[in-house]
């Protein structure tokens, strides 16, 4: 197997080696090496100088040229550079018998050169370790992404543009993880598949590069959506999603098709399941670089807005605002895929840092799905809130409903901020429990979905929605007590349990907004706010910067 980017330059001790880029195919390279080696061979074996000294004749074994060797000795030759996995600093051996004939392998019945010493065992162990890390990391990411997708599709309260973009990104990452596992398990670990160069193997290569582009482009869409929310407040979700789907799924298909057509015209680049590097990769590399640079610009703009809002409208001191902006930056980096910017800066081959780079890159790439699942699903307050509401109906003794205070059954005005459970076990098993419950009670799931649809359709205000669930809350709405130490809304204000936009609401200005939000609740076109600054209808409220909210 000829290495992808390796040069076959000047050999050591007269070994004949050439640059593979000078030849159209590996067969042409081997043919040229053969004729160069045998050009000076004009004698028939056994070759002698004075009739008494016997030599083994010159031979070309397909990789190296073996010069005439004295009988009864062992010839040495530098390992070829162009064979993948060979260390050119090591020596290969070939035994010359007393009768002037080369050693013949007992199994093949042919002359045999010993290249076993050429194999870089340390490099092979590193490659196997890296492959195992990729397979293990992709497996963990795939499982967590599937669980995240099940959660996103299970709760109607999680239906919004931001979550829909998350669903597309998580779907592309899950598919990519699945097919990368197939690639490393059935292609990389099987040399016969690489040498056969079958159609399914090439198709898998094209599919993997398509999914790679889809991943980067949906990460770009995540940043673009956040940027549009900050810059263009009023934008129709359906229009935005159409553009996002076009960018995330259709545009990569066009680019990968162009890449496949160009690469298919290069004979040297269509071997070994297209595993070797090719100049056609620039058709994919340039769009990926563009998406990463654009995502970096989006991230800088988000941090700028956070710092501006914290310094101008927030009562928090500057160091606290800076910490929140820094935390937002660290959280958004895996969502935008900006960690991949570090991957091109790799150490030189043979450097002591190469081992750590290979292992670090494998962990960074394969565990991205796990990272985004934990940050934007398992640790998302909306998901925790929805899971708690669901589990409280089945395990009331274990999980307290987030609408209730645990000490007296009074309404909790900051229900999204406080996660109240009776043990950390409830939070740890919440995700698994909800999947088991839904799988065992499909009729209950369907009933809950229909009930939720009627619930949200018939009610105009969130307070009345809650009153359907807890009748005593409805009575409290009719006769609100005077404002006291607790944040109780006045008659002309909405009890904002779900999103609590910044601005005048329950209590004093700014007291119930302990997190960063740009412009709070944004009303859609054609709708107005009430006196407290809330959207008139629950369904008309678009959440903004929901992923970068931070509590005290």
Can you walk through the features of this model?
The strands form four sheets. This protein has a three-stranded antiparallel β-sheet, with no helix packed on it. A hairpin with a 5-residue loop joins strand 1 (47-48) and strand 2. The chain folds into four domains: 20-118, Irregular (Hormone receptor fold); 121-374, Rhodopsin 7-helix transmembrane proteins (Rhopdopsin 7-helix transmembrane proteins); 380-448, no CATH class; 461-552, no CATH class. It has helices at residues 26-38, 121-154, 161-188, 191-196, 199-231, 237-264, 282-312, 318-336, 354-366, 368-378, 381-394, 424-440, 442-458, 462-469, 471-478; strands spanning 47-48, 54-56, 59-60, 65-66, 69-70, 74-78, 91-95, 522-523, 541-542. The longest helix has 34 residues, at 121-154. With 552 residues, the protein is mainly alpha-helical. This is Calcitonin receptor. Its main location: membrane.
